[in-house]
Design goal:
Bound molecules: NADP nicotinamide-adenine-dinucleotide phosphate
CATH architecture of one domain: 3-Layer(aba) Sandwich
Helix content: 40-55%
CATH class of one domain: Alpha Beta
Mean pLDDT: 97
Shape: globular
Low-confidence stretches: none
Number of helices: 13
Radius of gyration: 19 Å
Number of strands: 9
Distance between the termini: 44 Å
Strand content: 5-15%
Largest sheet: 7 strands, parallel
């Protein structure tokens, strides 16, 4: 392949896995890959393997022209800038505009499931970015990433210590998906991106309620775990008591509201379509990460 593929946010968890998947594919030479990050030193190992590493900060649009120069397919990894409403959308719009100025022929973006019908506080960032990409007229691939299975490392180790997991998700379901499976799908999308525009929703193979997740985790770790079903307000109060910064509590609670309302229950086969392999079963993920859950 002679097209040059670019991955932003390449030092993040997901960005690194995409680079690994591109290299492992053998379908693109390292010299046809550009990896960008705010901190290029974090990508020294990839530079040593022949990937071109450049500095790019979406908060500094002037850094992006040089960073994106010569790239024909650009994967924009959404940032984690949730500190101030509007900041992340502004970052993403700056990146989309820079991709257009650079003459990219295909823009790919990591969005979230059904951002047009979601209870998650930051869904408008993703919808706004999707719209900005569509407005360029450039071919695109929107990759609506389901919730990472790894997100469960945030709440479940503590829940396993007490035996109780507070959840406001009710009977709502999530088909958690590993970052590695998402990265394989993103790499497949980058490698095959052409003149068509498509939107995919990347999920695990099966959706589970919190009670079902707790049962799998309890059985695999050998530790008791029960779900205490709480209201949004009770969850918010518990998070505050646990010391979570007040500014992030509405977002964390909105994940549960969104799940309870059935907005993240979808299961697709898009991971397999894009990566060529089925996503990891949730039970396998828990088995492979037993130690991380026990903490
Ligand atoms: N689906 C889910 O469950 C889920 C969960 C958490 C996050 N996410 C989203 O998915 C993204 C990737 O996940 P991850 O696990 O790899 O997150 P991560 O390890 O926390 O990485 C954060 C990412 O944001 C990038 N970033 C932050 N500020 C930036 C800026 N000013 N300009 C350009 N890039 C910037 C970082 O790039 P550099 O540091 O290399 O510059 C890095 O790629 C996150 O940023 C977030 O938008 C999804």
């Amino acid at each position: 392949m002679s097209d040059t593929l670019l991955v932003t946010g390449a030092s993040g968890h997901l960005g690194r896995l995409v680079l690994d998947a591109l290299l492992a594919s053998g379908k693109v030479a390292p010299q046809n890959i550009i990896a960008t990050s705010r901190d290029t030193a974090k990508l020294d190992a990839y530079a040593a393997r022949g990937i071109t590493v450049r500095a790019a900060d979406f908060d500094d649009p002037s850094s992006l022209d040089e960073a994106f120069a010569g790239a024909s397919r650009i994967l924009l990894v959404s940032t984690d800038a949730l500190d101030r409403p509007g900041r992340r959308l502004a970052q993403h719009k700056a990146a989309v505009a820079a991709a257009q100025r650079a003459g990219a022929r295909h823009i790919l973006y990591t969005s979230m499931p059904q951002p047009d019908d979601s209870r998650v506080t930051f869904a408008p960032d993703h919808l706004g970015t999707e719209d900005a990409i569509k407005a360029t007229g450039i071919a695109y691939t929107i990759l609506r990433n389901g919730w990472y299975a790894e997100n469960l490392f945030m709440a479940l180790p503590q829940a396993l210590r007490t035996g109780v997991w507070h959840s406001a998700t009710g009977d709502g379901r999530i088909a958690h998906v590993t970052r590695a499976d998402i990265a394989d799908a993103l790499a497949g999308a980058l490698l095959n991106a052409g003149s068509d525009s498509r939107t995919y929703t990347l999920t695990g193979p099966k959706a589970y309620t919190a009670d079902e997740i707790a049962a799998v985790v309890s059985e695999t770790t050998g530790k008791p775990l029960k779900v205490m079903h709480v209201s949004d307000a009770e969850l918010a109060a518990g998070l505050k008591q646990a010391g979570l910064p007040e500014a992030v509590i509405p977002t964390v609670v909105s994940f549960d509201t969104n799940t309870r309302d059935g907005k993240i229950a979808m299961v697709t086969n898009d991971i397999e379509r894009l990566s060529g392999h089925a996503p990891m079963a949730f039970e396998e993920f828990v088995k492979a990460n037993r130690a991380a859950f026990i903490g």
